[in-house]
Amino acid sequence: MGTPGERAVGEHYGREGLEERISAALRSAGADPLAPSVEELHAVDQLHTRGVRATLELAELAGASPGERVLDVGGGLGGPARILASRFGCRVVVLDVTEEFCRVGALLTARAGLGERVLFRHGSALEIPFPDASFDLAWTQHSTMNIPDKDRLYREIHRVLKPGGRLAMHEILAGPSGPPRRFPLPWAASPALSHLLPPNRMRASLSRAGLRELAWSDVTPQTAEWLKTRSSGRPSGPPPEAFANLLLSIREGRATAVQALLERPEAQLDGNGSR
Ligand SMILES: C[S@@+](CC[C@H](N)C(=O)[O-])C[C@H]1O[C@@H](n2cnc3c(N)ncnc32)[C@H](O)[C@@H]1O
């Protein structure tokens, strides 16, 4: 399923034996792998920089509210989705191109007792398998770095958002000196899988898709701090040198981290000035 590029992404993230490694990590942290709490899962399921703190910040920025329907695009193992469901009362669909993440993510969600509020769907962000205007909030957290066609991604997100719906994003972008040169990085073992735009081109792509910017913050300094102090690898994660390379890339001006909120405006003028 999917394009060759998407299959390569699935191979990058979908390592064999993931479920067993996560269960072992939970057990050694004193949790019951068959009935973990959402909080106990944080150590293994937040596949982005700055961990659960970044997820909570983004949810606050987005104004995530009870009953809202959320699409977590590239939602991985569902770590952010379970927080949106358990702490903010949202109903979340995780869409991800890595089949193993969908399978293990659904298992972890059922074991944490959230199977009715967080659903998983294996599929592509470039062909979102949902009808127009089906979500109040779209969410991308470190999931666009593997996607070359940003215009198509944001057109798809705009299409599935209801008018007035928001896109919350927390992403790694290229820096003032260009894209990273050191590999592996957490999202890509080689340049072929890494597709970072600088902030100005990312913003232009979002705007072309009809998404209006409500907030945009550079969170690179706090990301660099976190990278300096983070402990060793996660069971679902990349090798430690990938994080060291990300920190070096930030220092070289070749990576930045951004947290932003956009909206699909209630009514948009077409090219003729009518609604
Ligand atoms: C670094 S992980 C982040 C996972 C999750 N957002 C989190 O923060 O815990 C990136 C995720 O994006 C997914 N992804 C990359 N390209 C995708 C695409 N074209 N369609 C759907 N998911 C994609 C990957 O499979 C992976 O699960």
UniProtKB/TrEMBL annotation:
Pfam families: Methyltransf_11
Recorded GO MF terms: S-adenosylmethionine-dependent methyltransferase activity
All copies of domain Methyltransferase type, residue ranges: 71-168
Gene3D superfamilies: Vaccinia Virus protein VP39
Domain of life (superkingdom): Bacteria
InterPro entries in the cross-refs: Erg6_SMT_methyltransf, Methyltransf_11, SAM-dependent_MTases_sf
Protein name in the entry: Methyltransferase type 11
GO biological process: methylation
Keywords: Methyltransferase, Transferase
CDD domains: AdoMet_MTases
